[in-house]
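Writing this down once: the sequence line spells out the residues, with the fold written below as integer tokens. I am pasting one below:
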Amino acid sequence: MIVEQYYYLALDVLSLAFPLAASFERRLFFRSKWPGLFLGILVMASIFLAWDAAFNMIGVWGFNPRYVIGVYFLDLPLEEWLFFLFIPYSCMFLYEVMRHFVPKDVMRPAVRQLSFALVLLLLIVGLLHWDRLYTSTTFISTALLLAYHVSIAKAKWLGRFYIGYVVSLVPFLLVNGILTGWLLPEPIVWYNDSENLGIRINTIPIEDSVYLMLMMLIILPFHERGAERAESIRK
């Protein structure tokens, strides 16, 4: 049985275990796409960890010492630093699996309409709840980045992104469910509900689902460029 203080660390490691082992599978050729992927994760993590530290400092969320080993950097537990490496790696692995088994961009005809509808929805919710830091920061940031990808960068991968995002939501919500107290007597990560909408998917603030979208939208441009180079070399 795992000692309580290792729960968060165990969750990190278990999230990575299968995607890392399967990264050497020849059909996916995922290992060859590491340079772009890790560059994207580095950019995302530098933004998210600074955000994380700031929100932790002012009490938007925090960490239960009962479930961490007690090693901290910038007042964040080591496990949280690993979260921003292991979880996006796992999500992007699922994205590649989806791209392998669904090579046709089936969402492409609806990308612009869906994207603009999402941008509008996210902006409205973020602006209407400007006083709730987690909600406004997450929703408005995601809306602006999505608008950039569809209108300025004209990203060709957005159709695949939407399917990959939905696929990634399943394990992401499972992991975040445990982090926020599902199956545990106390949450590993607690949230101040005065700074979010107070709407939960089981134990998970609904903002976490948008948080994942923002995370992937930061990583994907780097990953896609790296994947294109890897595929051209392979051919």
